[in-house]
Automatic annotation (TrEMBL):
Membrane-spanning parts: 31-55
Name of this protein: Cytochrome c oxidase assembly protein COX16, mitochondrial
Protein species of origin: Elasticomyces elasticus
PANTHER family for the chain: CYTOCHROME C OXIDASE ASSEMBLY PROTEIN COX16 HOMOLOG, MITOCHONDRIAL (PTHR17130:SF14), MITOCHONDRIAL OUTER MEMBRANE PROTEIN 25 (PTHR17130)
InterPro entries: Cyt_c_Oxase_assmbl_COX16 (IPR020164)
Family (UniProt): Belongs to the COX16 family.
Broad class of the protein's primary localization: mitochondrion
Length: 115
């Protein structure tokens, strides 16, 4: 029965390539040749992406701004101004004692709530 070698066969021309030299060096110094560049990429990427993220939030802040009282009420320049006392007197002038209950029209197929 034949015994196989633990090492794979690599020709002498394959040993002179950059990839082969890197593979051999990586086996001896894994952190220096793989871990350190990976961590450096993550840290530097964070620093380079910070301004891009800041721009995103600054654009959002320009869109969302504090509204004035008139904007909240939906009053434009061409609309009349709402006066609370005037609205109160309009409601007080209405007759709230005489009213009639009206049933809301249901959609077709909707349960009408009648037992």
């Amino acid at each position: 029965m034949a015994i196989f070698q633990a090492k794979k066969f690599r020709s002498s021309s394959a040993e002179s390539t950059v990839a082969a030299r890197y593979r051999n060096a990586l086996a001896r110094h894994p952190f220096a040749l793989f871990g350190l560049p990976f961590i450096a990429t993550m840290v530097l990427g964070s620093f380079f992406l910070t301004p891009a993220t800041a721009l995103r939030y600054e654009r959002h802040d320009r869109k969302v701004r504090q509204m004035t009282e008139d904007e909240r009420l939906g009053i434009g320049k061409d609309k009349r101004r709402i006066d609370m006392k005037e609205e109160y007197y309009k409601l007080a002038a209405k007759d709230l004692d005489n009213w009639e209950q009206k049933r809301v029209k249901r959609l077709p197929g909707e349960h009408d709530g009648v037992l």
